[in-house]
Amino acid sequence: MNPAPNRPVQAGAVTGIWPDLPARQQPSWPDEAEAERVRERLGQFPPLVFAEECDTLRDQLAGASRGESFVLQAGECAETFDQVTAANIRDRVGVLLQMAAVLTYGAGLPVVKVGRIAGQFGKPRSQDTETRDGVELPTYRGDMVNGFPFDEASRLHDPDRMLEAYNASASTLNLVRAWVSGGYADLENMVTWGAGTPRTEAVRQYDEVTEGVARALRFNRAIGVDSPLFHSTTVFASHEALVLDYERPLTRIDSRTGLPYATSGHFLWAGERTRHPDEAHIDFLARVMNPVGVKLGPTTSADDVRRLVDRLDPDRTPGRLTFITRMGAGVIREALPPIVEAVQALGAAPLWLTDPMHGNTFTSASGHKTRHFDDVVDEVRGFFEVHGALGTVPGGVHVELSGNDVTECIGGVVPVLEGDLGQRYESPCDPRLNRNQSLELALLVAQMLRE
Ligand code: PEP
Ligand code: MN
């Protein structure tokens, strides 16, 4: 049936349900009238994702929470507007597909691919201001809020940036969708996903996987088996639901069910700094039907997780709630078990992911924010050990990476040394694994899944 003429296609932007709760880490817009104009505009824009896709992801995450598949959630710490280029998006998707192939091949498990992509433009910060050479300016809060260059004009919070974030997300997602469904993700093209990467041990092992897959495909073809799944895949979009002036106007009523969905991404999470059960970010996630996540740091108490489960997953819907633990390699083996046990005691079965990055950040002698690859691997190992001991499912990994050969994290088989950090440090926020380190991590995780 055709919609009635003049029927507003985007009817259903959700207004009026947002209570006035404390909201941390929000921009301070200099002009409230301008911010209101932008919120209204965002409320008229088309959704970036559809409710049904979010339901599909929720079902897939439910499978992962039962151990039937494994989740790879990966991408930038902070996307930037400058990075919205075909080459950059291709490299980011390429490394995700490479890691997923290594995991699927090595562990014999389907991999649910979720990018930190097409919306990861807002950043929580531990300090409001930053001082350089006696000049104090607001900290960089992600391209959605202000600019990275250290000057007054760039660091001013500008609501128009939310419109640019929407457009950047739309064009990113458009290309991701086209590529993964239109041939780039075809298993016949596996060799091209890492094109241009220098040859290293990790790349050599990736080539072995490529050869194994090619042999399997030849075999299948020879016996007359083909499947659309050999030729395309799905990459879901996720980001931290941080800037509420962006997320709320993009929340829409699903015409099938009459229920609200966030349409800025398939999966949204609350960060370690905004996960208070009585505050605005958890309230926001509680009101939308998407699969949602919460980051849990080393100070998380059993009571915190009990309240989060009650707020976010009162009906114990499989796949609805993901806990992304980011404890630090040194403490995960002590800090994680009481939390998992508290959740088990509630009869809840969330998906557990490990973020082995954010608990392992330190500043190098050269002044770079960095992470050691060995700590990243050790936290993943600790995650597998704890869940193994408690009989719960280690459902996946959540990492920050780049499709390029950046030098931001120390270590790896082709080691980035502390003295190399300055060579190619391009992240405006946290240090990312480079392509080799990402492949190496995938190879190690595949091995942990087999053990
Ligand atoms: C992040 O994922 O970039 C982040 C800031 O994480 P966390 O909330 O865990 O500190
Ligand atoms: Mn980060």
TrEMBL record:
A Pfam family the protein falls into: DAHP_synth_2
Cofactor binding summary note: Binds 1 divalent cation per subunit. The enzyme is active with manganese, cobalt or cadmium ions.
Residues that hold Mn(2+) according to the record: 77, 358, 400, 430
Pathway: Metabolic intermediate biosynthesis; chorismate biosynthesis; chorismate from D-erythrose 4-phosphate and phosphoenolpyruvate: step 1/7
Keyword annotations: Amino-acid biosynthesis, Aromatic amino acid biosynthesis, Cadmium, Cobalt, Manganese, Transferase
GO MF terms held by the record: 3-deoxy-7-phosphoheptulonate synthase activity
InterPro entries: Aldolase_TIM (IPR013785), DAHP_synth_2 (IPR002480)
Family affiliation: Belongs to the class-II DAHP synthase family.
Protein name, as recorded: Phospho-2-dehydro-3-deoxyheptonate aldolase
